[in-house]
Amino acid sequence: MTLRILIANRGEIAVRIARSVKELGFIPLGIYTAEDKNSLHRKYMAEDIEVPSYLDIDEIVDAAIELGSDAVHPGYGFLSENPLFSKRIIEKGFIFIGPPPEIMELAGDKVRAKEMAAKAGVPTLPWMVVDDPKEVLEFGKEHGFPVILKAAGGGGGMGIRIVKRKEDVERLFEQARKEAENAFKDQRLYVEPYIENPKHIEVQILGDGDNYVHLYERDCSLQRRHQKIVEEAPSPILNNSLRKTITGDAVKLASFIKYVNAGTVEMLFDMKTKKHYFMEINARLQVEHPVTEMITGIDIVKQQIIIATEGALSLKQRRIRMHGHSIEARINAENPITLMPSPGTIRTYNEPSGPGVRVDSGVTSGSYVSTEYNPLISKLIVWGTNRIEAIRRMKRALNEYIITGIQTNIPLLKAIINHPVFISGTHTTKFLEKHWKDIKENIKEKELLHIAILLALAAKGDSRIRSQLVSGSRFAAYMNGVEHTRVESIKRRAWLYWAMLKGRVSRKRGRRKKK
Q: What's the average model confidence in pLDDT over 40-57?
């Protein structure tokens, strides 16, 4: 039977899902908004229809009906973890490709999820639901500061506050509660001890209600403002014993709650004690799922579709093997230093390629990047026989990646991948916070060199060529991200580098050569 599957999403994930749908012999259908009328993902759909918003449940259900859909895949973000959406899809007679509503409800309630983890015998940190600042103070006195406040009804870095001193409890409590209410319509908070330098380890699981497997773990420790930037699989700091324990606990929890379809069990790993603690469940496809696919050879999207349409998972744990190492870098349309969004039209777009390189992209030359949506424009994924090869391959791929017309975080990613702490694999969730000053200076220096050479070369062309070179380069991006930089200083360095290129000055001293 040829199924018609509506992909209720946009961008790179819509393209990625459409490819797997086609490989299964099914028909991908899509939706788009007026903002996305020229979006790349539309070209991968057999048919599509315009909707006012990717969050409008009624319009998306109507689109599924009008397109003659048999099933709906929500991708990630938007409605992917909304149990009301999955309920409506199922009520209308469609197959929902994802966890059932009751699993979504459990995963979305962080407090219930922690209770289930504790009952399943999975380690958790001490925690309690708090209704006022006094309870936070009492918890801090018992377990010590710092503590962390978290929203019970959501994730994504919203409703989180780290309380380092008792004097800050009342102020941060009110901030967290207000943010949780605004983001999730749920002002409940819970508190737990704050691990200062943890690893963020997550385990990919698949289940059908009876059979459960894990696809090993991912290390997602490299974050800024609770948002992941670089992910890899497997974690570079886990030995076989720790890996077996952590993945075993993830499967234990999945089995206990009768999990169905693809999901992720997230853990905090204390680098000091080498102990792990359950954090939350993500009841959807994760952004970083490709690194797991690269080390296992298993297409997670295809498995999602098979479980949803056939009701059974055919994979067996004993047959799943891990091979090599994979790293993913999120390519975002943003200033590499301020990380502010960079909307606009992409003028040049050339992806890297070659052995072990994969790019999941939702854009091409001429694509417009809007501020309406997440700034993620693509994911650069590499694979190597070991971590050293994967890092070298990522360096090569980042150097090959050419995007002009907008700012991107590629300079930041280069600085991260080349940093000795990242290369050692010991980086924690505090990596960027600890090393931000050095990384920022590294970005500035590299970009300054690029600009200087560019301006020097442009100076040899006519004004029209000079204008095109400067406006179409990183010049504007750099100037927006550097505080108090004077153009005259850049011009002086431009002359210096031009002179170096012509052999007129010494590279060591930057002085004119004697004739």
A: 98
CB 182 within 8 A of CB 103: no
Cα Rg, the chain, nearest whole Å: 25
2 burial (CB, 10 Å; 0-12 / 13-18 / 19+) is: exposed
Parallel/antiparallel/unpaired status of strands 376-384 and 348-350: unpaired
CA distances from 180 to 125, 128, 173, 183 (A): 21, 17, 11, 5
Q: Total structural domains in the chain? A: 4
314: which DSSP letter?
A: -
User: Residue 244: phi, psi to the nearest 5?
Assistant: -65, -40
- The residue segments making up the domain with residue 188 are 126-193
Q: Are residues 59 and 162 in the same domain?
A: no
Domain assignment present for 511: no
pLDDT digits (tens, 9 = 90+) for 371-388: 899 999 999 999 999 999
**Residue reference for tokens 């990522």:** 394
Strand ranges (DSSP E) for 12-110?
A: 27-32, 47-50, 71-73, 95-96
User: Is residue 381 one of the residues assigned to a domain?
Assistant: yes
Q: Residue type for 279, please?
A: M
User: Which one-letter amino acid corresponds to residue 481?
Assistant: G
**Residues belonging to the active site:** 284
Phi–psi pair at 447, nearest 5 degrees:
-70, -35
